Amino acid sequence: xxxxxxxxxxxxxxxxxxxxxxxxxxxxxxxxxxxxxxxxxxxxxxxxxxxxxxxxxxxxxxxxxxxxxxxxxxxxxxxxxxxxxxxxxxxxxxxxxxxxxxxxxxxxxxxxx
Amino acid sequence: xxxxxxxxxxxxxxxxxxxxxxxxxxxxxxxxxxxxxxxxxxxxxxxxxxxxxxxxxxxxxxxxxxxxxxxxxxxxxxxxxxxxxxxxxxxxxxxxxxxxxxxxxxxxxxxx
Lengths: 113, 112
Known about the structure:
The complex is a heterodimer. Chain A contains no helices and eleven strands. Chain A is mainly beta. In chain A, strands 2, 4, 5, 6, 9, 10 and 11 form a seven-stranded mixed β-sheet that branches. In chain A, strand 5 and strand 6 (55-58) form a beta hairpin. Chain A starts with a strand and ends with a strand. Chain B is built from no helices and twelve strands. Chain B is globular. Helices cover 0% and strands 54% of the residues of chain B. Chain B is mainly beta. Chain B starts with a strand and ends with a strand. The A-B interface holds A 32, 34, 42-44, 46, 49, 51, 59, 88, 90, 92, 94, 99-104, 106-107, 109 and B 32-33, 35, 42-47, 50, 52, 91, 95-96, 98-105.
């Protein structure tokens, strides 16, 4: 069966510091991968998605970037965090040939102070 | 671009009762899917139910069923025999072109 991991689970970082959040998927190959951000009490905003290694599409211009160095690894980064980057970050995957449902990781709660 | 609207921010239901959560969407796509996701206090997003737009038959998963009205672009979720474990935020989502667009969600509280 497929599983998706995210780490860290929680993170408190000062403004101006760098960020690296990691997502890995097990039990599938060549999945579509997605990064979402969820502000407090709000819906999910798609940040980036990837259909393959090195292929990244950005949905929202912002202070963040994403990379996919391996087939089942997706990384969300920032060089300098802003207060507005605080939120709950979710990674999701979708396999080829399936309907469009996505399966989500447990999330990372980021607080920028 | 697609939009998904969940106009009710909160709802409450008595345990064992039935509740319906509303969702409307707007799109020019002809091939799409619709979903309901549940986010309990743990914040893990869980897929509840899926509806293919080309299917007229409404999807059902145990106590969960949908009322899909394609012409009206409406996609409501009915939860029967509500349980305390159904307390969560529920998100309606529209899927097309490998991406999902989410509504803002509704907080459902099940009262004992």
